[in-house]
Amino acid sequence: MSDPYRSPEGSGTHTAPAPARPGRRNGLAVAALVTGVASLLLLWLWFVGIPLALVAIGLGIAALRRARGGAGGRGMAISGLVLGSVTVVIAGILVAVGVSILNSDEGKDLRSCVNNARTEQDRQDCSNRFNQDVGN
After folding, report:
1. Is 38 helix (H, G, I), strand (E, B) or coil?
2. What is the DSSP string of 83-112?
């Protein structure tokens, strides 16, 4: 019977393969990915999502620089950087749409109506009228 661990010379000794050398870890890359995902998920809380996106971009850039130096995690760094950037772009689009709606004639009517409303029911009527105007 043949021994798969027998050396080719037939001396009966065998050598184990060298253990894999652990690569340098890149914690910044992991942090960039985590903050990038969190920023996209928490964008609806703009005061949390936007700062997280900026942190993800910064960490992604730093992690890419570290990855160039031999540390791993290049893919995670790029993913965090892209997710943070996507969050900033989406936030910019939402702000632009919101500003354009509020500066429209319907938005100006809503602000005027709400400013002149005296009761909560009046404010609700303003909101309902605005929704009807925008829907038509």
Report:
1. helix
2. HHHHHHHHHHHHHHHHHHHHTSHHHHHHHH
Residue count of the chain: 136
CA–CA dist 78, 63 (Å, integer): 9
pTM: 0.67
CA–CA distances in Å: residue 7 to residues 1, 3, 13, 17, 19? 14, 9, 6, 12, 19
Tokens of 130: 């605005």
Residue with tokens 């130096």: 69
- Asked whether the beta carbons of 75 and 81 are under 8 A apart, the reply is no
Give the separation between CA 79 and CA 36, rounded to whole angstroms. Answer: 8
Q: Return the structure tokens found at 101.
A: 């709606």
Phi and psi of 16, rounded to 5°?
A: -80, 150
Local confidence band at 134 (pLDDT 50, 70, 90 cut-offs): confident
Average pLDDT score over residue span 119-127: 85
